[in-house]
Amino acid sequence: MTFGQAEDLVYEFPNTTSPPRAAVRPTEEILRMAEPGICVRCAMSDEAEALSAFAAAAFPLGGPPGADPLDLAHYIATELTAECFRTLIENPNARLFVAEMAEHICGCVLALRSSPHP
């Protein structure tokens, strides 16, 4: 299996106390599991600016209560830049997925390989 191609690794969470088991599902099935009206796909380099803007708006919402706004602003300014997203998109050991609705980004997730691409 090649990372990010015909099949991707998905975790199933059964209604048991046992740890999740990994299953391989075709990419097409994964995309069908998305909410109607939401498209999930790989990010493209020309979306780096839009991803940076989305992350800058969303990141403070997930921070701990009472987080110092200056710390949040510093992290956004240094780690959520368009160049950082461009680097992730072009990294062969990373896969950045975006979710979009009505042609607007409404979510993103990063998957990283634990070892270099063969």
Task: Explain this structure.
The chain is an alpha+beta fold. The protein folds into two domains: 1-33, no CATH class; 37-112, Aminopeptidase, CATH 3.40.630.30. The protein contains four helices and five strands, in the order ββαβαααββ. A three-stranded antiparallel β-sheet has the order 3-4-5, covered by helices on one side. Strand 4 (94-101) and strand 5 form a beta hairpin. Helix 2 (48-58) packs across helix 4. The longest helix has 11 residues, at 48-58.
* Number of spatially distinct domains: 2
Question: Mean pLDDT, nearest integer?
Answer: 78
What percent strand?
A: 25-35%
Largest beta-sheet details: 3 strands, antiparallel
* Low-confidence residue ranges: 1-24
CATH architecture verdict of the largest domain: 3-Layer(aba) Sandwich
The termini sit apart by 11 Å
Category by helix and strand content: alpha+beta
Shape: globular
* Structural Rg: 16 Å
CATH-assigned homologous superfamily of the largest domain: Gcn5-related N-acetyltransferase (GNAT)
Q: Describe the strand arrangement of the main beta sheet, using strand numbers.
A: 3-4-5
Q: Percent of residues in helical segments?
A: 25-40%
In short:
It is built from four helices and five strands; from the N terminus they run ββαβαααββ. With 118 residues, the protein is α+β, with helices and mostly antiparallel strands. The chain has two domains: 1-33, no CATH class; 37-112, Aminopeptidase, CATH 3.40.630.
